[in-house]
Amino acid sequence: MSIPARQPIPRLDDNYSEEAASTRRAFLTAQTGASLPHTAHYSLSPDSLRNNTENFIGVVQMPVGVAGPVLINGEHAQGWFYVPMATTEGTLVASYSRGMRIVSESGGVKTTVVEEFMQRAPLFEFEDARAAKRFLAWVDTHEADIRQAAESTTAHGKLMHIQRWQIARMVYTRFNYTTGDAAGQNMCGKATHAAAQWMLKNSPETITHFALSGATETDKKHSHMNLMHSRGKRVIAEAVIQREVLQRLARTTPEIVFKQRQRSAIGNQLAGSAYGGPHSANGIAALFIATGQDEANVVESHAGFVFMDLTADGNLYFSVTLPSVICATRGGGTGLSTQAECLALLGCHGEGKAKKLAEIVGATVLAGDLSLLSAIMADEWVSSHDAYGRNR
Q1: Is 240:315 a contact under the CB 8 Å cutoff?
Q2: What family does the Swiss-Prot or TrEMBL record give for this protein (predicted)?
């Protein structure tokens, strides 16, 4: 069987125009036979997508539901919030809404951003281990010069510290920045490139091999490194769930939830799970898509820890720690029309709002975990999907 010649995707002089998008849709219909009338239906301007996508043909319409309201007592997020969630999974928004009602009627969720960093992680290689060791000593004495070179590329990024590990004749580094309201991966890449070029030029040791990434930043991959050394924002959400509220709204008790938590912790350990609760990725993904975050960052952001305890007066202390929530309120997809509207629903569009958004993420995860765990213990998990979800 002969293989047809390659047919390149059409590009026009003004490649971000309705004409260009229409030309590509017609080309794809001719090549594949697929009809794209719904993909072609959108309200945004193709010209607004120059920094967001290539070969634009249209949109995929994702349903957006609203969960809540949830009462958050945060350092940055304070008050009642209606949370937009983009998902195709039936019962998801309803479950998160139920969890938000439980925590709100118990007094709300307390949220705290403990620290925040974004990284790029260059690799330097030398002739032998002693040269690598001397290079590390040189870095110690020239960190101010390295910082100046890095920060010359950005008005918002600040180089806070450089981690380093020597393996054989290699030095693995991890440049840690704060990035303002941007997620900052590209910002950190550009800053670290400038710093590394200064280091390559001025190092007293001969560098035999260099790479801008030695992979210890674990960009868009889960890692144990990011559980210990935050990538993004380390967010803690905690709530004391009142016994009466849990019994009335979830038909379970603090003791039953706590008992199951003790057992599921072993199951998570047995499976090698990256997250210690029921399903953090569900809420994070739905909120990320709605607000224009880089959806691949869910893999890092969803990892973390759940801790529970029974209080002296018989209530349930419930906490979620997410060490690497990567979110932004500027840049990326946050400025697109519908995503900006969803951020505006949360009061998180624009300057000075990234920590507020991270706290909302933490509160959302806690509410969703509480609701699902309660449904499992009340034996309502399957019946709820039968009534509202994909089992229908």
Answers
A1: yes
A2: Belongs to the HMG-CoA reductase family.
